Amino acid sequence: MGTQTFFHHREEEQKEERQQKLQMTSVTRKKRFKTSEEEETFSLSELSIAAALALASETPQNYKIRREAAILELEQRGQKRVWFGNEMEKLEEKVIKNCRLLRVRADRKALRRKAIEKAHREKEYIALRSGRAPMFWIPLRVHAVWERMEVTLTCTVLASPLPQVTWYKNGVPIDLHLAPAGKYRIKNKFGMLTLHISRCSIEDSAEYSVVIENQYGKAYSFATVLVRKYYGKESGFDSEIYRRSLIAQEADFAFSLKPLFSREKEPFTLSCYFTSDLLEHQRNVTWLRDGELLQNSECQELKYQDQEASLTVPCAYKEDEGFYTIRVPSLDGCKEQTTYVFVRDAAAESAGAPGSPLNVKCHDINKDCLILSWVAPSDNGGSSILGYFIERCTAGSEDWVPCNEKPVKTCRYPILGLAEGQAYQFRVKAVNKAGISHPSKTSDPVITYDPSKGKRVTVIPYDEGKVIEIFKDDLEGHIKIPLPPTNVRASEVREDYVALTWDEPDPRGREPLQYYVEKSLVGSNSWQMVNLDMPVNSPRFALFDLIKGKPYSFRVRSVNKYGISEPSLPSEPITAGAKLASLPPPSQVLAFRDTKTSVVLQWDKLKDSLEPLGYYIYCRETGTEEWQTVNNKPVTCNEFTVPGLKPGKEYVFCVKSVGEAGLSESSPETDPIVVRPAIAHPSAPRGFVLLSCGKATMTIGWKPPKRKGGTKILGYFLDQHDVSEQDWHEVNIQPIPQRVYTVSNLEEDHLYEFRACAMNMAGVGEVSEPSDLFKCEEWTMPEPGPPYDVKFTEVRDSSLMLHWQAPLYVGAGPVTGYYVDMCEEGTEDWKQINKQSTATTHMKVSDLDTGKCFIFRVRALNKAGIGPPSLPSDPVVAKSKSGTNEIELGVDEEGFIYMVFEAPEKNDSSEFIWLKDYEGPPDANRVQREEKGNKSKLILKDPSEKDLGIYSVEVTDVDDDISASCTLTQEDLDKLLKRSHEIRNPLIKLVSGWNVDVLEKGEVRLWLEVEKLSPNAELHLIFNEKEITSTPTHKINFVKGKGLVELIIQNFCDDDKGVYTAQLQDGKAKNQFTLVLLDESFAKVAKEADAKQREWKKKQGPYFVENLKWKVNENCEVLLTCKATNLRKDTSFQWFFNKKARTGGAFDPQSGIGTLHIKKITKADEGQYKAVVSDDRGEDYTQLDLTKGTFEELLKELCKISALSATPLKIQPTDEGIKIYTDVKYYTDYMKTTWFHNEKRLEIRDRLKAGSTMNQIWLHILNPTDTDKGKYILELFDGNDSHKLSTDLSGQAFEDALAEHRRLKEAAIAEKCRARVVQGLPDVATIMEDKTLCLTCCISGDPYPEITWFKNEKMITFKDRYRMDVKGTVVTVTIEKVCNEDTGKYTIYVKNKYGSETGHVTISVYKHGEIPVGIEEKEVPSETIIRKPE
Would you say the pTM of this structure is higher than 0.85? Predict the structure, then answer.
């Protein structure tokens, strides 16, 4: 026991020691040594003294005393601490000594630092007192105030010298002179700056800033002022509205959704635009159709991009018609807009066919049958719908199979014979007597299944999500022969069918069941099985072709592989064939005005709990018989807005109910209604302006409401408010008819604001926003006041008419003119558009940019200067509005000249205001006004030059501008007067004027045609001022029914020369027509008549029916043919050439065809050809002039055929070289030939000779070398086209030809007798006018060659000035008195039987006194072309 106590005490002692050591260690570690400043608090004077002592070099005595006292104090503190252990006491002593030294050093440094800081502050203070840059001692702060409260922005500044102060609003300097009177007050007193804003409005919400600046610098401070409207309980800093003001402004709808009209099978896009990009919380845009949410799919695409949300349907069906709604989330909930999309029927394949059905749906789906329903189309094509055809296909295929043979009369039908587990789709077509409609939209795919299968399965869950399925059928394996079904009944009884349903037997057994249905007429004991060949798998069955009006009973048997059950109990008697009654039409159909293009319809829903599928609406324009469908998908509501109507037109409407039996009869028609906007309260007036001001009066003007409410504005009520008072006061009790009013009994120098409201037949409209503050002080300025009521009319694509009222305050003198300024909307860039002032209060503004929006203002001018501008006009877009009408100029049936203007969009109270030259209404003594419906007519009573000018018309009391003008010019007036005269003095209308025909026998027929005349019409035919009557030689025919007048003259001679006039009269209408047959006109007719007479007489004997003509055949032979008729055996036929008889022609008396065959035509064949046929009855001839142009055309054709007959180029070695040639059927000099070597045109020179024969064209290469290798091309030009032939003379072909040439050369050296041009012709020769030119050359050849000269490729005929002398081998051509016409290329052509050759020289003739430059006469051997002998 004692031992335990000892150990216990020992453990406690050790524990206390450990705690004491731990405490000592903690205290030692946490101790921090402080300076004297930190332990004691010194006064400022003591700190100053300490700083001074620290800076002094000598240490004062009291400083040492104080330091010793501090050290002693520290020693005392150290002695008070109690520590355990000698080691700790020694350690503490050392620590205290070290702390003492550290304390001394820290005190010295702290005193020195404070002294330096104080001295630095004193220096800064002295510097700041002399001058400083501006600074904000107290900056601006943010303010939030309610609308119409006051707010004062205050700040305090320091600056030396005093700074310059500038206030800004949103970065724009605040100018007290431009701001409304009393809006701002600015003060600067004793360094305090204030900006006072009175009667804050929403527009005053902005960032306000102030800038202060002096020579030392500038400073800037800003604050935001938020002006809020009062929203009742929703206002305040904790409200949703305040929270919204702290974030970015939400996007809103930029425009209202408009109704959209599309057509079946065509795409459409419905677009909605926003004012800005949608914020993050607004991005979940949703679209709905008839309240059903739409998703992105193949049928529709939803998209948002660039502030536009769109819904696109790539292929529209009538099921896509309906009310479309777009919803955009917002902090208040959601924003939405709704419109209606119309889907018209596609064009019918056959005229009069009905529209397609719609909304095809499947119901009561079983293993092998289902019920199909649809909605009847709105358009029956003009005749009753006889029924519907149904088609089906397996999903994914296009193999459509008909489901019914006879048309189904109701919109519901059972489909039998389907396969279990198969996916099907269906479509329906409507049929009437005109044809079959387009198929409906395909139904959604459906899969046939057993709907009762789920009831026969028991699901037992186990082991965390696993299940065991127990089929009731598996537990009924003891059932072999099935039990009979129960509860046989009719689910649907229609005119075409009866649908039966029954309950399966219970228990039904394990084996699959099928059913047989039996029927029996009530009262008979015989049962007939109706589906022996096709047992049904589902407890559903439809029976067709039952006798109408007879009652039937039905029973069903079950069957499986073991056998057939007993029959079920018979059903209750069911009478088939009862026709499904159509729904009655709706009643009380009323039409109300809505907008200028729409009407609102309302009707009563069907009573007696009848629920239609919807309603179809129809409309018809008054005066027409055809009804137009409005909607193609039934609407379920009883109110509908019909859009897309013509403004100002009158319509009637009716409605039909839609049910399973089809459409009902039409409801009673509505009363006719004119499409015009509904009458509503007007909107608020706007644009208040001070027009004049006295000491106690102010004249106020304002703009009319933007929306007048569809009727005339009856007047305005004006209120005034003195800023110094709390309440508003009425200015007038009775409405003010005009928009200018003088307010009296005001206080001078007080600030007033005004507001107004408009009144029409519907009542008093909205109160306007208060005007700007106007100060009541008398105007004494010399300049005129502002014009007012600036408006525009006749807005077109690039022009408009601007109107304004003269200022009420004229200043120091009368107003002498006006200046008009213009700027684009959204800018302040005002531009003066008239350089010279206009004296009138209207001006036409032209050359505007189409589609841009403009604003106008007007300034008045007097002798003192230009006054302030008017209030800016409303923005106007320079673009003609669709459907804009113009004034029509015309003449009515009575001959009166009129101007008419139609305004379909006018209201009942609207008036037509006509002006002349924009100055005032037309003179009532000169015009008569008539108005009927939407038209206004201005009739000129006595048209004259006084009526010339500009006529304008404007329609009042409408929201949009309806105006037009036209200019009646002198030219227009003359045309209208002429037309008026024609109407009042009718003329017989001319169809065809006088015509002159020469008949076959030479008779002359003069005739004219007018409009059809009555039997009482009269004709007087005047010849040379004497009336003539019908005679055998001058027969007159007058066919009144055709308006034909004709005169037939048997023997036209000089006695018939003169003037013929036909005077016609038919009642009041009359006219006369003159024909002049004199001089040339008479001679022409007489010549033709004589020729026709001779021609006729000629045809009494043989004559030509086909004149002489030429033809070139494929063998290049020329055939001249003609044909005669009326021949006899003794008729002779003869050919002539150049008036000489020619033999060789042929004539066939049977066919009458004469032929002259020229095998090889030459220049000698050029001339006149004539064929003569004659006998004792007479003679006839035909001529063909084969000279000049005709002969040239023949040669062209000959050359063309010859060129086409050319053979490929051939290579033939000769004794002189290598010859390249082609064979043609016939070659003439008219055909131009050109040779090319390696694509370069060959120049004919000594070693290259080109020539031709009658059947060959060749190129002879003399003494060939390697440079002659290459490709050779012959170009044949027939006068119109070029033909090319080519060959390759290179390689082995060249070697072979060269070897053969060398062999032949030796054998042909002796051949020297060909014709050639030896020498003498230079290349170029120049000669002065009037000189004699001699061209001499030598020729050779045996026999002597024929010589032909050509000038510019045309043969020269030697006569007059041209002479050729031949002396032996010397040929000389002399041209006397040369002239400029002799300039050209001269060619000598020599030819004998061995060949031909040409020589060329170019002659240039210059005038007297001219010196030919750069031309030297040289005698150069001429180029020659050697031709092969013919």
Answer: no
